[in-house]
Amino acid sequence: MKFDLDAVFVEHGCAGSVLATRILRALPRHVPVTHVADAREATRPASGARDPFGAGKRRMVIARRKTPFLMPCHAGSPSFACCGYLVLTLASNCPMDCSYCFLQEYLADNPAFQVYANFTDSFDELDRLIANARGRSFRVGTGELADSLAFDSLTSISRELVDFFASRENLTLELKTKTDEIENLLGLDPRGRVLVSWTLSPDAVYRSSEHLTAAPAARIAAARAVLDAGYRVAFHLDPLIAYPGAERDYLLLIEELLDTVAPQQISFISMGGLRMTPRLRGAARSRFPGDPMLCGEDVLASDGRFRTFTPLRLSLYRALADRFRKAGAEIPAYLCMEAASVHESVFGAAPSRPATIGERLARG
Amino acid sequence: MNADEIDAQIRMLAAERRLPPSHLARWLAMDPASRAAMLDIARVIRIRTGQLMSALETLEEIAVREHATVAGVLGRPEIRRIAGGPGSAPSRASALLQALRTLRYPLLKKMQEQLRSEVAALKLPRGISVVLPNELGSDELTVSLRVRSAAELAHLLEAVDRSRPGLTRIIEMLGGKSEK
């Protein structure tokens, strides 16, 4: 386990679960474990903490999930050209602490790191999904409300996940991470059904904003390792932050990536400019007042989010898309939370329907 | 004045202007030189409460962006010129905020100027208006015609058609296609 925990809470009824047993066995002895009848109180912000959200990240709660695991991506909206991504919520929050992270707003009221003891129930939901949509393919990811691999050395959830997805022809699992926690993956056979994706940022963003994450070079090296182990790989340049010198730094990052992973081995690339609701922006700046990456040339856009003003944001997208185009292989690419007109402007063609994009990305 | 006296003066001015406690706290959290420089300019320009809040926020952001202090930013020639220059207090306060915004959003301001000069260069007749998106927050250009007769409409449509290359260029600039 690479991340520190201050405490673990186990909800009544979960203590004997495979997951709880596994976690408690691997947990360092100094971390106190408390058994609680109802985990909800333990998930709430710690009263009196100077940084309740940060404190929540170091408090693990093992509980039953009482709502569905599978849902459409929360970022989806008719105003955006979406990618058809489905989210499988097996955990909530992340032990890393990126200054720009949307979870600071999304999980402000329940910031504890929750992991769901009944996570294998999600497999029934997935089987129902494919049974009801025969012939269709889906890309399902666990990295939306949590990093897919951050606590994998403790939970080993990836093992069950990879085994499940490896045997489902129409499902592709996306494990999205900013770590290099890939040890569990290397001994498994994903049978082409699992892609591991990394959010990549230049060193300047990593140093300024991505606290406790693996360095960009380590993420790229980990991608190479899982590729060699039979996984597909993808990369998210999201958030793209338009700081002074950003274009040069992102292009250098792409060079570094393409030196290690050949373009034809990349399943897809996504890009998304930094976007923040006013509430998220306030929370982020209050937790990270000295981070210049949070003080870009952002303006309030029509969707109510602060975004880098449009010509600058689009010119950065275009420069990176051009670089990937010149790489000599047609790497599927999409923009996250951008309007169709922006896709058309950057890629020169209107985006397909979300379901079509989703199928294409799932099939690879 | 020593630091305690400066802080007392800041508190007094904040009370006079009914500055929200959160903004007073931000001001008092600055380094001593920055606290004093901010007090100095607020007094010289007799800046209003809303302007003071904007100035504090913008200065903080510039300082973070540029790894500078607020005192360093306020000491720049373009700001000192405004503080010590002619004009009424309200006009200088307004000029101060404009200058701070230019420092805070240098590329946006430059792009807006380029686009405005592109629009002006079209020399469109009265009745045609070209409106850039607010703060360049989208890629949408609004071109509108105001007419009262079919002949007027024909005249304006011809003018728009003649301006097509220029308008196309503006749309491309909004889409990030300008040369750097």
Report on this structure.
- The complex is a heterodimer of chains A (364) and B (180).
- Chain A has helices at residues 18-26, 40-43, 52-57, 103-106, 121-132, 152-155, 157-166, 183-186, 203-209, 216-228, 246-260, 278-287, 310-325, 340-347, 354-363, and strands at residues 7-11, 33-36, 59-63, 70-72, 86-88, 91-92, 97-98, 113-116, 138-141, 171-177, 194-199, 210-211, 232-240, 266-273, 275-276, 298-300, 306-308, 333-335.
- Chain A is an alpha/beta fold and 364 residues long.
- Chain A has one domain (66-109, 134-363): pyruvate-formate lyase- activating enzyme.
- In chain A, strands 4-5-9-10-11-13-14-18 form an eight-stranded mixed β-sheet. Chain A has a five-stranded mixed β-sheet with strand order 2-1-3-8-6.
- The radius of gyration of chain A is 20 Å and the shape is globular.
- By secondary structure, chain B is mainly α.
- Chain B is elongated.
- Chain B starts with a helix and ends in a 6-residue tail after the last helix.
- The model of chain B has no long low-confidence stretch (mean pLDDT 94).
- Chain A binds chain B through residues 289-292, 294-295, 297, 299-302, 307, 309-318, 341-342, 345, and chain B through 61, 64-67, 104-108, 111, 133-140, 173-178, 180.
| Gross geometry of chain A | globular
The largest chain-to-chain contact, stated as pair and per-chain residue counts, equals: A-B, 25 and 26 residues
| Intertermini distance of chain B | 48 Å
Main beta-sheet annotation of chain A: 8 strands, mixed
Main beta sheet of chain B, described?
A: 2 strands, antiparallel
The average pLDDT value of chain B, as a whole number, equals 94
The CATH first-level class of chain A comes to Alpha Beta
Sheet with the most strands: spatial strand order of chain A:
4-5-9-10-11-13-14-18
